[in-house]
Known about the structure:
Layout: E1 2-4, H1 5-15, E2 20-23, H2 30-35, E3 43-46, H3 50-64, E4 68-72, H4 76-79, H5 82-90, E5 95-101, H6 117-120, E6 127-130, H7 137-149, E7 155-161, H8 162-166, E8 168-170, H9 190-202, E9 206-210, H10 212-217, H11 220-230, E10 234-236, E11 251-254, H12 261-269, E12 272-276, H13 282-285, E13 296-301, E14 315-318, H14 321-331, H15 338-350, H16 364-375, E15 380-383, H17 387-395, E16 404-406, H18 416-426, E17 432-437, H19 438-441, H20 448-454, E18 459-464, H21 469-478, H22 493-499, E19 504-507, H23 513-522, E20 527-532
Parallel strand pairs: 2-3, 2-4, 4-5, 5-7, 6-7, 9-10, 9-12, 10-11, 12-13, 13-14, 15-16, 15-17, 17-18, 18-20, 19-20
Antiparallel strand pairs: 1-8
Helix pairs in contact: 1-7, 3-5, 3-18, 9-14, 11-14, 12-15, 16-17, 16-23
Amino acid sequence: MKKTGAQILCESLIREGVEVIFGILGGAVLPIYDTFPQYPQLRHILVRHEQGAAHAADGYARAVHKAGVCIATSGPGATNLVTGIANAYMDSSPMVAITGQVARPFIGKDAFQEADITGITLPITKHNYLVAGAAELAKTIKEAFHIAQTGRPGPVLIDIPRDVQEEKAEFVYPDKVDLPGYKFVSKGHSVQIKRAVKLLKEAARPVIIAGRGIIISQAYDELKELAEKAQIPVINTLLGIGAFPGDHVLNFGMLGMHGLAYANLAVQNADVVIAIGMRFDDRATANTKDFAPQASIIHIDIDPAEIGKNVPIDIPIVGDVKSVLKAMNKEIESRNHLDWLSQLEQWRSEHPSLEIRQNDGLLPQYVIRQISEATRGDAIIVTGVGQNQMWAAQHYIYTKPNSLISSGGLGTMGFELPAAIGAKVGRPEETVWCVAGDGGFQMTIQELATIAQENIAIKIAIINNGYLGMVRQWQELFYQHRYVDTKLWNPDFVQIAEAYDIPGVRVKHREEVIPAIQKAMDYPGPFLIDFIVEPEENVYPMVQPGESLSQILELPKPEVPSKY
């Protein structure tokens, strides 16, 4: 039976298990939107900016472990997706972005709202398509979802000319894909796995660095078995938080520029590092020339392009981390490293990175700690980038798998609010907290309308210090306190929320924090809290750019210890 391109698209999305699409309509996608009512299985959520659609699809994808879908019209609609697509690409998040394009006779003629979106997104997608005819659509969609969700996940873009959406063709959905040029290795090489096991058996000071690949592969049990069986301390990258229980005795927190001092010291003094599903980015390693100088490094990753890209590797293992860890656990012997673990505990005592100093004002670390205690770790925390992100990474205890969703590689301000929408839509039974800075929040603040219209019950915590906080911190430390254009004039966020029919409260004092959080938790719908925190509070520990992980700036120990 013949169907229009728009109908083929909808039918194909349903075959791929798509339940929700984030988007905003325009002229070049009107045939698709006109077709949506025929397919009530597809829930469309109208965002207020295409960047919000991409971030929401990203947040959804990370929360549910399948491709998120966003849609935009041609020209500016498509280009507004670019930041969200790049963000998903950097963080290996599966996404299928659908864009409208001008009709085929007008392509390349500078038609109204024409943009070469396939050319623009070539460096930030796993693959992209310009669909030449309706007969190609079903095959294209099948391939797009396969590419987005397999191997190292990532975004795929499908650009569909307007007349293709109206053109009719026979609808036959393929059972499988045939992509000879697209291959990935799932199982690690047995010889390399045996070499890695032998090295771990001989190690006296081993460390696991757990990256986002564990979360993507859902290898939580396998990681825990390896760590417990061989008694190896586990350290997380930023996006690896949630791969290993935060309250586990073998968890020693996050490493990197704002990692915990004892985590950095553990890596720098290890004799074997087993890096799992991470890519040795600069924020994690600091100066790569002095990274883990005493260690032999085992690197497990599904993407061979990441092996040896940033640091030399002694034992590379290409494969899906769940499969590789299963194989390793069959070979690994029970061990104890009491002296090494004792040393790490000593460093934890000597470098109390999570201690919160006494202060008359409201400290952001205290706010995050209270959200952690109120939720008991049973929540999804979604952040953007900057100081709010680092405090959320440090001071919330992530006891559940995949409970932090954040912008890692691209570091995108404004990611947090729409990504929280996607996470809550994907996992409606979960409590979702959006932790935002006052700067980043204003970059996608319009999505409050989406939250209100769809009654998406996320809880919003604005860490409001009146600055672009992380930039101000760098200006303080490296530019002699020259705060050039980092001071913010902010609106009344509570009144803005209320204008969107979302209740909110402002919190200025310590004793108001717990009641406000509880009020947000008890409220059945969306709720906003504007926390007015110390304006010049810095994130510590910190490793300065160009330094090694051993050279750590720490906050002086308070004279009066805090009970927190």
